[in-house]
Amino acid sequence: MVKYVFVTGGVLSGVGKGIVTASVGLLLSSRGYSVGAVKIDPYINVDAGTMNPYAHGEVFVTEDGGETDLDLGHYERFLNVNLTRKHNITTGQIYLSVITKERKGEYLGQTVQVIPHITDEIKRGLRETARETGVDVLLVEIGGTVGDIEGLPFLEASRQMRLEEGEGSTLFIHVALAPELTTTGEQKTKPVQHSVQELRRIGIQPDIIVVRSRRPLEPEARRKIALHATLPPNAVFSDYDVDVIYRIPLILEEQGLGDAVVRKLSLENSKPNLEEWRSFVEKLSNASRPVKIAMIGKYTKLRDSYISIVEALKHAGAHLGLKPELLWIESSDIEEDKASLEKLSEAEGAIVLPGFGRRGVEGKIEAIRYLRENKIPTLGICFGLQLTVVEAARNLLGLEKAHTTEVDPQTPHPVVDLLPEQKDITQLGGTMRLGASPIILRENTTAMNLYKTKVITERHRHRYEINLKYADKLESAGLKISGTSPNGLIEIMEYEKKTHPFYIGTQPHPEFKSRPLKPSPPFVGLLEAAAKIT
Ligand code: GLN
Fold this sequence. Notes:
The protein is of the alpha/beta class. The protein has two domains: 7-136 and 144-180 and 194-249, P-loop containing nucleotide triphosphate hydrolases (Rossmann fold, 3-Layer(aba) Sandwich); 284-530, 3-Layer(aba) Sandwich (Rossmann fold), CATH 3.40.50. 36% of the residues lie in helices and 22% in strands. The chain is built from 18 helices and 21 strands. The chain has a nine-stranded mixed beta sheet with strand order 11-10-12-13-21-20-19-16-17, with helices on both faces. It has a seven-stranded parallel beta sheet with strand order 5-2-6-1-7-8-9, with helices on both faces. Strands 14-15-18 form a three-stranded mixed beta sheet, covered by helices on one side. The structure holds glutamine. Glutamine is lined by residues 354-356, 382-383, 386, 406, 461-464. Residues 354-356, 382-383, 386, 406, 461-464 line the site of glutamine.
């Protein structure tokens, strides 16, 4: 029998529900249970793919090509599993499916309503994912904050599931913020009390409360919250600010959260195996040798836009004992003021970040030229590789107006052009080349040296590709192909060692597969080269 753990949030969005959900998952999987995690996003978009990273942060791509919420990245990194598109449910998906059924006449004359049809569709989706993946426990994080209008059908569906699945098979964890007054330093519990009340008004009594606060929760605050929530004080846990997010499962375990979850789900308990995790956390937090990495992109004002890349740098850093210090460089600033290129002189390494569209492109190309000419170790990801090719075509091959047709459809030298299968596509949502596919690496290349195997898989999210017609010319300029897809698309390129100490560009996004205990090879390579430890 599958068990379901629902995680709701109170007081504010962004209190770290995703990390708490992932942490609960880790405490269960470290006890030998197989765990999956679903994120519910109550917005109307069918998936995260059409959303601006400024609004919702990075779009996380799953193996099967789902364009999902960034919380799935946390789940995959903490649980060390591959999730699927089905692990991210949105209001848009639920309505699309109910309306499609209605149009087909599947409701046989019924009036189609939020309750029961929308709530049934939500429950059906969760049960189907649990069944198909065969997990012991499915965690379900309900995005947003209790009290949001758009979240109501999901809370209602979870309330019904408690009734249908039974008490020992469902668990409700509420994560809410206890703010601290700067003047007195006092932890205030009233907002948590109110959000619990709001949850109860909907018919949900939380079993466990996780309180987010700056400092560890004081006994008096814990007692108050427990009393108001009709819970024993040992059902209230403290999720205080720590140096690294990967420490959160450990501080929750110390307080007995793992035991409490297992007990309430009527599962057998065992001693958790968290040794490897703990040693990773210690390595990460003790890594002291700084290495300055420039991050060149166009969404640099919201760091969550590139969260998997930042995490991948941390994983590689922990592995090597290095502490990446990130210098964020907004590419459009370079266009306005060339002096901002000078910031790059401080960098020991750089990442040319993924992206879309025209804004900041010339700035990125300027930065790439600087990184190439000054021999700064560089990793270009997706758009970062494509613009590396544009820069090489312009400045090494003398093809002055070379460009990607994404930015200049009329360019005389379309060195980056639409993938052939993209030419007839008219809809934007879910139509890119998406998800994991194999890449064949060439012998005697940096890529092969890093991955140490001939065939790898990485995840994609792009519409444009390096134009094969220019491959020979680019190679003659020193920019070599080091990986291709089985049908010959260029997947990885790199400057020859004699031209540049470390410059590699990848069409896929290696960051999505980086895990705490299994750092992604290109990130390891970049940091090694930046810190000159190769
Ligand atoms: N805009 C480019 C494309 O669609 C690159 C996408 C990316 O960086 N993820 O091909």
